[in-house]
Amino acid sequence: MERIGFAGLGTMGAAMAANLARAGFPLTVWNRTTGRAGPLLELGAKEASTPGTLAAESDVVVICVSDSPDVEQVLFGDGGIAATIRPGSLVIDCSTISPTVTWNAAQRLSEQQVQLVDAPVSGGSEGAQKATLTIFVGGEPAAVDRARPILEALGKTITHLGPSGSGQAAKAVNQVVLAGTYLGVAEGIVLALKSGLDVEQVVGALGGGAAQSWVLANRSGRMIANEYPLGFKTALHRKDLQIALDLAADVGAALPISALCVQIETSLIAQGYADEDMSAVARTIRQLAGLNAPASPKRRAATKSG
Predict the structure, then answer these.
(1) Catalytic residue among 171, 194, 239, 304
(2) Cα(131)–Cα(230) distance, rounded to whole angstroms?
(3) How many CB atoms lie within 10 A of CB 74?
(4) pLDDT above 70 for 302
(5) E strand or H helix at 34, and its extent?
(6) Are the C-beta atoms of 102 and 151 separated by less than 8 Å?
(7) Among this protein's residues, is 171 annotated catalytic?
(8) Could you give the CA distance from residue 282 to residue 233 in angstroms, rounded to a whole number?
(9) Across-strand partners of 155?
(10) Closest Cα to residue 30, out of 87, 86, 83, 79?
(11) Helix axes 214-225 and 199-206, enclosed angle (nearest 10)
(12) How far is residue 279's CA from residue 273's CA, in Å, rounded to a whole number?
């Protein structure tokens, strides 16, 4: 069984790494900030001090960090993976980043006889914990075949979409669709509230028809309560949508709903809601309808300090 190194133990990465450990893979982990590896060490993992140390001890390195610059730093920065990784190794990047950055990284690694598979995921923290993620995969067929047993320990739907960068492009499509779905569900919930309907009854009825969706089933309750515990951060979806808009500009596509969602999420981040679940877009839809909303984290903090 191949030795796995896992770089990035955030909300998604820590759960994904734990599933690899439970699947029996020999596992070494690294995270930029210390103190995240404890539960994984209890599962038998080892901890590396740098990404380079991680790569030196691994046959396959999985990366799950926040953005394109983070991936570039982990791969090619001081003490990075590229400095110590051996020829014949494989890198699987589960981060959501620019397809162009992915393609460039794959070219640089190929010069060291290392293959890169881009494998961004969808399914939020729940999917990461339950190993039910949807995984969009790009890369050479042989590299993807090698990656597949590892990906199967992380998710249920694994689709090879083409050469390097294809997985990232498909993830951008996913985030575009989610933008419209979240906004649509939020508008429907607000319309039901303003019309005096029993909103939970409405949601149940909608679930039996064409309006059914994962967002309706799993996030409508948060929109009704106007409370948004973390599943997938608003700030991260905002970052992902910008990747999609940049890709759209490159290929000549217009994404008006995504552009609107970016504006809404940008405003929410400015109000202090960056770390709430992205279903918090309903805050804005509620406010536009004159529905009461609690004070933002920034305002609550200012009130307490005053």
Answers:
(1) 171
(2) 18
(3) 28
(4) no
(5) none
(6) no
(7) yes
(8) 14
(9) 133
(10) 79
(11) 170
(12) 11
Q: How many Cα atoms within 13 Å fall on the side-chain side of residue 211?
A: 15
Rg of the Cα atoms in the chain: 20
Distance in angstroms (rounded) separating the CA atoms of residues 261 and 257 = 6
What is the separation, in whole angstroms, between the first and last Cα of the chain? Answer: 59
> In sequence order, which residues have a C-beta less than 8 Å from that of residue 105 and are 6 or more positions away?
71, 72, 75, 76, 93, 116
**What was the pLDDT predicted at 303?**
42
> What are the structural domains of the chain?
4-164 (3.40.50.720), 170-298 (1.10.1040.10)
The stretch 242-257 carries a mean pLDDT of 97
Token pair 């969706």 is at which residue? Answer: 213
State residue 306's pLDDT score: 45
Distance CA 1, CA 147 (A): 12
- Indicate whether 4 pLDDT > 80: yes
The pLDDT confidence band at residue 292, using thresholds 50, 70 and 90, is confident
Q: Which amino acid is at 287?
A: Q
Altogether, the residues listed in the chain come to a count of 306
The per-residue pLDDT of the chain, averaged, comes to 95
pTM, rounded to two decimals: 0.90
pLDDT in tens, 180-192: 999 999 999 999 9
